[in-house]
Every structure is written in structure tokens, then in C-alpha cells.
């Protein structure tokens, strides 16, 4: 771990101090900067393995810094941290390739997961296809829009059967799946995929939570079992947790 330098850019001195201390407690090296401009002028720019950057700062803000780094050819994975989360800023950051968009105050585990995700090279969200299966058209539409706002690719299906017949089964990195649907239900699809050798991480969503279904889903390896309506951050955290696992979406041989 010690070879990885994590740079923290935030105009709040207390945030810089506590975050660098936390990063060092994980076993990484840390460098702190009070502005985007000071980071760009630093010798640490070329050594940085992951960048934690505030969104709103005097002078150059975090989103502008992200654009500047991309234009200069730097591929540093970026984790945004902000006390003023908004969907437009989140969408812009994630679509430009950010690893994560964390609201302050974040906990130790949230930050560690985001840094690990960045250092494992899984920050290129565009390679990850998130498939959504739900017979409710409004749920499909809102969930796929939300997934795309995080920077991922999304595909939507009205039924388990249509998903199984699609070409996206092999490309799906994570599956968001309704429990109750006409025809094959979500639990049956989970079993079908397992029997066929697919290890796609599954996140169940349902308006009719019951202990028996939850128990069956989780025992069969589901990542999570979310009740509708779920909030944006809850879904993002769950998808990120699913993608941190080793890639097993391809059919086993």
C-alpha cells in the first residue's frame, strides 16, 4: 500500500487534516492541498494514485480540476467529497469518470471502499453495465436514469425472460431485479442464472418486502434487498459494493 499516494484537495483545513490522518491510518501515503491550483503546481501531481477533491472551492472548483486533469492527459482516479451534494454536480462528475461522489460527513468504511475501488482500476464506470429488470415501466425509467446519472451504462427489461434472451446477459456487471413480476419472478431468475454458471451480483428491489423472500435472496448470494422507494445514495452505495467484488459476471467454464 505504501507506494500509493492519495492526494486530498479541500479548502477546509480541518477536513484536510482529518482526511489525511484517516488515509494514513489505512496504510497509504497522503498529501494535502488547500486549492486545485496548488495541487496542479505540486511535484506530487505525477505521483498521485488517487485524488480526493472537494466540489466547491474558491478559485478552481473540483469539477474544473477534473476537466483540467483530463485535458492534460492525467488518468488519476477521482473521489469527490462534498457537503453540498446535488444531482447535476454528481451527474457531471460521474459521467466524466469519477470513482465516487461522497457526501460529508462520510465514514471510514465509505472512504476506504472508494479508495480501494479507485486503486483497483475499476473506476472506469463506463465499462460497467447495470441491468434493471422490473415490470413497472416508471420504475425502469427512473432507475435507469438514476444509474446513468452515476456514470454507469444501463439497460432496462420488462421481464426476466426478455433479459435472458438479450445479448446483455454476458455484459452485465450488476443486476437490479424486482422480486415480484409476471412470469418468472426475481428469485427464479436468480436461481436460473446461478444454475447456468453466471455470478452476476444481484440487488433485489421490492415494494412487498417479506422475510421469506429476503432470506431466500440473501442466502442465494444477493448483494442487497432494497425496499421501494429507495434513495439515490442508498442505491449508489449498493451498486458500488457489488462492483467492488471480483468480476464474476461472465459464465463460468
Radius of gyration: 19 Å
Note the overall shape. Answer: elongated
Please report the distance between the alpha carbons of the first and last residues.
Answer: 33 Å
How many E strands? 10
- Lateral strand order in the biggest sheet: 2-1-3-4-5
Percent of residues in helices: 25-40%
CATH homology superfamily name of the largest domain: Response regulator
State which percent range the strand residues make up.
15-25%
Describe this structure in words.
The chain has 253 residues and is α/β, with parallel strands linked by helices. It has two domains: 5-119, 3-Layer(aba) Sandwich (Rossmann fold); 126-244, Response regulator (Rossmann fold). It is built from ten helices and ten strands. The chain has helices at residues 13-25, 36-40, 62-71, 87-95, 108-119, 137-149, 160-165, 186-195, 211-219, 232-244, and strands at residues 5-9, 29-33, 48-54, 78-82, 100-103, 129-133, 153-157, 172-178, 202-206, 224-227. It has a five-stranded parallel sheet, with helices on both faces. Strand 6, helix 6 and strand 7 form a beta-alpha-beta unit. Helix 5 (108-119) crosses helix 10 (232-244). The longest helix is centred in the N-terminal third of the chain and has 13 residues, at 13-25. The protein is elongated, with a radius of gyration of 19 Å. The model is unreliable at 122-126 (pLDDT under 50).
Amino acid at each position: 500500500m505504501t507506494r500509493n499516494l492519495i492526494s486530498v484537495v479541500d479548502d477546509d483545513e480541518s477536513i484536510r487534516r482529518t482526511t489525511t490522518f484517516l488515509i494514513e491510518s489505512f496504510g497509504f501515503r497522503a498529501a494535502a492541498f488547500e486549492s486545485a491550483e496548488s495541487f496542479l503546481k505540486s511535484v506530487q501531481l505525477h505521483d498521485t494514485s488517487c485524488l480526493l477533491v472537494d466540489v466547491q472551492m474558491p478559485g478552481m472548483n473540483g469539477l474544473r480540476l477534473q476537466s483540467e486533469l483530463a485535458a492534460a492527459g492525467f488518468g488519476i482516479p477521482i473521489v469527490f467529497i462534498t457537503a453540498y451534494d446535488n444531482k447535476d454536480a454528481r451527474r457531471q462528475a460521474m459521467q466524466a469518470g469519477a470513482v465516487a461522489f461522497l457526501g460529508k460527513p462520510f465514514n471510514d468504511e465509505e472512504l476506504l471502499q472508494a479508495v480501494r475501488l479507485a486503486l483497483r482500476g475499476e473506476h472506469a464506470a463506463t465499462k460497467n453495465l447495470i441491468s434493471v429488470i422490473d415490470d413497472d415501466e416508471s420504475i425502469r425509467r427512473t432507475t435507469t436514469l438514476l444509474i446513468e446519472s452515476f456514470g454507469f451504462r444501463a439497460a432496462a427489461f420488462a421481464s426476466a425472460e426478455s433479459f435472458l434472451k438479450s445479448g446483455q446477459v454476458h455484459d452485465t456487471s450488476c443486476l437490479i431485479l424486482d422480486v415480484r413480476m409476471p412470469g418468472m419472478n426475481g428469485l427464479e431468475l436468480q436461481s436460473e442464472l446461478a444454475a447456468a454458471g453466471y455470478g452476476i451480483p444481484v440487488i433485489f428491489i421490492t415494494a412487498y418486502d417479506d422475510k421469506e423472500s429476503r432470506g431466500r435472496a440473501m442466502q442465494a448470494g444477493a448483494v442487497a434487498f432494497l425496499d421501494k422507494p429507495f434513495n439515490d445514495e442508498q442505491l449508489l452505495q449498493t451498486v458500488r459494493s457489488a462492483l467492488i467484488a471480483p468480476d464474476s459476471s461472465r459464465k463460468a467454464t
